[in-house]
Amino acid sequence: MSALLRPRMSDWTVVVPVLAVVLLLVTWNRELPGLLVAVVAAFLAGAVLAAVHHAEVVAHKVGEPYGSLVLAVAVTVIEVALIVTLMISGGDKTQALARDTVFAAVMITCNGILGLSLLLGALRRRVAVFNPEGTGGALATVATLATLSLVVPTFTTSKTGPEFSPAQLAFAAVASLALYGLFVMVQTGRHRDYFLSITSDGSVADSDGDGHADPPSTRTAVISLVLLVVALVAVVGDAKTVSPTIEAGVAAANLPQSFVGVVIALLVLLPETLAAARAARRDRVQISLNLALGSAMASIGLTIPAIAVASIWLDGPLLLGLGGTQLTLLALTVVTGVLTVVPGRATVLQGGVHLVLLAAFVFLAASP
């Protein structure tokens, strides 16, 4: 870890995010040839790796659960900006973009990141151990937010179609912010110990996530925090830059338009996925689960209020309600998640089940 704590201007973790942002400014809102798209994609991948590096430095400085919160909120804030930008400029084809992206984020985090974390943790220790109190509370919050924002609009009758009336949308936005704020208060205050890593005997592990290296200096942590934001801006911006190519590829493959949101969500969530995988390999499964469920919560709790405000200027309906297949997958994810979380211990089986649910989501998104 000591090498992580001494960023130099010549380090690739400094150079790549800056160059990725410069490339973003040069290519923004332009049609790109195939070779330049490949270059943007390469810098996108580099920015993802740099974001994970700087997130680890910040997390090592502030300790858990603050470190997980930093990455989850940073990614989600920029993701929200991307969704709003695309909806304002995209016309009718983006009416369901918020729903598709948020649902994709929930499925990727609650099945992909969570399943991968449990699988890696169980492969390392035979049984992945985590705190059921904190993880269970986080899952309950995710389930409530997802139901209020994505399920209820399917069944309301104030407006035709899977959408809220203005009053209902305002209530969902306020409720989402309130629940997310309450969770953050609990996670970082009264019950902070529920979200710290624990060992196989049930004792709390060191809160900085690393039992060997000293925390970085404040100056190093601040530099990494700035570079983390720069890298995340590059990730989301470059993802938008290559999105026309993605859309063209999706159309050429005869896939539904909603699959574009799945691909972009996968790209945007790469930093959290890699950070969670690294934590799980270091026997810090709780940190991985904090990232997974915290990202799902932030995705809903910040996106819905932002979309509610943006809807004042958006033309056309805002489709939020899920369809039958999506409702089934969400219900199965919540039930499976509860059964996984309650014991506080998981094997490779639970990890595999969640990864199969992610595979089912991706397959059915491509072939509804």
**CATH fold name:** A middle domain of Talin 1
Cα gyration radius (Å): 20 Å
Percent strand equals under 5%
- Main CATH class: Mainly Alpha
* Spatial order of strands in the largest sheet: 1-2
Main structural class:
mainly alpha
Helical segment tally? 12
Subcellular location: Membrane
GO molecular function: potassium:proton antiporter activity; sodium:proton antiporter activity
Main location: membrane
Keywords: Membrane, Transmembrane, Transmembrane helix
How would you describe the overall organization of this protein?
The protein has a two-stranded antiparallel ribbon with strand order 1-2. The N terminus is likely disordered. By secondary structure, it is mainly α. It has one domain: NCX, central ion-binding region (A middle domain of Talin 1), CATH 1.20.1420.30. It contains twelve helices and two strands; from the N terminus they run H-H-H-H-E-H-H-H-H-H-H-H-E-H. Helix 5 packs antiparallel against helix 6, helix 6 packs antiparallel against helix 10 and helix 9 runs antiparallel to helix 10. The longest helix is centred in the middle third of the chain and has 35 residues.
Key structural traits:
single chain, 368 residues, mainly alpha, A middle domain of Talin 1, two-stranded antiparallel ribbon, 2 strands, 73% helix, 1% strand, globular
Question: Briefly, what is this?
Answer:
This protein has helices at residues 12-27, 34-62, 66-90, 97-125, 132-155, 166-190, 218-252, 259-268, 270-281, 285-310, 324-341, 348-366, and strands spanning 128-129, 345-346. It has 368 residues and is mainly alpha-helical.
